[in-house]
Amino acid sequence: MENWRKLKKWHKWTVGIIAFILIGNLLGLIVPKSNNEELKQDETVKTEKIRPVQAQDTVEKAQKEIESIKYENLSPITEAKALELFNLDSETKQYPKGLFKFKDGTQETASFYSFLGGENFSEAIAIFLDGELARVKVWVEDESKVYDALAEWGVSSNVEYSRLNNFVQVYEYAVDDRFSTNNIARLPNEWD
């Protein structure tokens, strides 16, 4: 008889636990699916980690896209316009007809000016060939100002510019690749 009571208690507990598990599963409360089972059901889940600054990155990308659209259809300013818009650096010798020597040994005469800052750059060096902009190098506060600084020189945002120094915010755009910093062997001020 005592075995029967134990059996009844055991039976009662078993039925209670099974009922609790079944009701819990139906309601999704007791035995949650493991992560592996969830991934098997939905294989489109990406396993990449999401960075917490992703929203900020999106905002910055959108701002850069807006800036690039704003400066899309510009044309480089002329020598006369640059001399009218910007102040020359009075402490630096200017070379309106300076001689350049390129790494391939060829030479060219072009204007070589150092300018004081504009609205978006602290200083600039510009080279003009036959009155047209051949290269401009600008010093800016930070990279976010590059489009604005180049736009002052009439350079569209859909062009490729170069950062010349990892420690100083110096950027260059060469309309004529011969006048890029990496191709010039000797500047006009190096002939003195």
Would you kindly provide a written description of the structure presented here, covering whatever features stand out?
- This protein has 192 residues and is of the alpha+beta class.
- The chain folds into 2 domains: 49 residues, no CATH class; 116 residues, no CATH class.
- It contains 5 helices and 7 strands.
- A 7-stranded antiparallel β-sheet has the order 5-6-4-3-2-1-7, covered by helices on one side.
- The longest helix has 26 residues.
- It is rod-shaped and about 110 Å long.
- The N and C termini lie far apart (119 Å).
- This is DUF4825 domain-containing protein.
- It comes from Lysinibacillus irui.
- Keywords: Membrane, Transmembrane, Transmembrane helix.
Helical fraction equals 25-40%
Instruction: Report the average pLDDT across residues.
Output: 78
Beta fraction: 15-25%
Number of helices: 5
Distance between the ends:
119 Å
Kindly summarize this structure in a few lines.
The chain has five helices and seven strands, in the order H-H-H-H-E-E-E-E-H-E-E-E.
Any chance you could write out the topology, listing elements then pairs?
Elements: H1 2-27, H2 35-41, H3 54-70, H4 79-85, E1 95-102, E2 107-116, E3 123-129, E4 132-139, H5 146-152, E5 162-163, E6 170-174, E7 184-186
Antiparallel strand pairs: 1-2, 1-7, 2-3, 3-4, 4-6, 5-6
Highlighted features:
transmembrane; 5 helices; rod-shaped
